[in-house]
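Q: For a teaching handout, I want to show students what a protein-ligand complex looks like in token form. Below are the inputs, and the small molecule is 3-hydroxybutanoyl-coenzyme A. Please produce the holo structure.
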Amino acid sequence: MYGNDFTTPDARPRPTPDAGDEPATFRAIIGDDGRVEPRDEMPEGYRKTLVRQIAQHAHSEIIGMQPEGNWISRAPSLRRKAILMAKVQDEAGHGLYLYAAAETLGVDRADLLDALHEGRQKYSSIFNYPTLTWADVGAIGWLVDGAAIVNQVPLCRCSYGPYARAMVRVCKEESFHQRQGFEILHTLSHGSAAQKAMAQDAVNRYWWPSLMMFGPADSGADDSRGHTAQSMAWGIKRFSNDDLRQRFVDMTVPQSEALGLTLPDDAIAWNEERGHYDFSPVDFTELFEVIRGNGPCNAERMAHRVGAHEDGAWVREAAAAYAAKQQARREEGAA
Ligand code: 3HC
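A: Here is the structure, written as tokens, with 3-hydroxybutanoyl-coenzyme A included.
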């Protein structure tokens, strides 16, 4: 169990799995809340759902290096620069663990990258927003990494072993990222009037996109009928998008007060009866537009990613040639 996890499951009943063609061994593991390992039999739908989600997650980590990478050369001090470089490097590492986890499901990393570059697989909407000021680096750390933690800590208990284990380390590092973002904003919000205004502006711009990160509504009348019910039945997702979004709001409002910054939603108020903060409905039209490729930076992010991939071709070729040479030597030695 990790710091930000929460054990009170959703009050709504867990959806009943559609038994369909599920092998008995798989149903037993899921029924016991155990871990499915790569060697275990699993239904094709389960495997495909995991490949889709883990690949999207991995792509998000590496595309997510861009908005903040943009500020490495302009960080306001050597200390800030070193911290930001380490953080961006962590995101590359997260991508690596996640591509490796996806590969245990019988897919090839190169094919997943092709799917990203050809627009056949998605990455998180959040990385299609620009980083206009240094305060945006703080807002991303505090809000985006904060939302990522709320979403990802329950994934440490995902039913697929390799994904769950990858998430343990990812979440530890994300906690550090969230704190560094909070610290940047705390410094700015306790600085000059101009610095405080810069911090407030960044929070104003990143608040709603951070709430959209959790995905479309998946409960009540607005249920978008996405993957949540099936993914919860399989123990991939542990909570609905809406429950996690609420959890994030509940966690973040008191933190904004500690920062001396406001959240751009006049409807935010503690609801004694529900035991949660109320907040305004999220504009999911914007989320779907960004997912469709029409966000402020989609084209720029993809062009940069594809360019970096093409520029790196020689590194992959050299690494493959070196590995082949080592393998041939080992075989010669064994003969
Ligand atoms: N951005 C882009 N696409 C999104 C999205 C978002 N914020 N939220 C949902 N979608 C897509 C889904 O992929 C799905 O698309 P598809 O049907 O075409 O495949 C569709 O919208 C419907 O959404 P669902 O809620 O039904 O989809 P999921 O069950 O997959 O849930 C999710 C979406 C909650 C994002 C889930 O996939 C998840 O928890 N993924 C793992 C975490 C992750 O990928 N986070 C991305 C950010 S990584 C990050 O933040 C890095 C850090 O360093 C900051």
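A: Two things your students might notice: Residues 52-53, 56-57, 60-61, 64, 91, 122, 124-125, 144-145, 148, 151-152, 212-216, 218, 226-228, 231, 237, 241, 291 surround 3-hydroxybutanoyl-coenzyme A (CB under 6 Å). Residues 182 and 255 are 9 Å apart (CA to CA).
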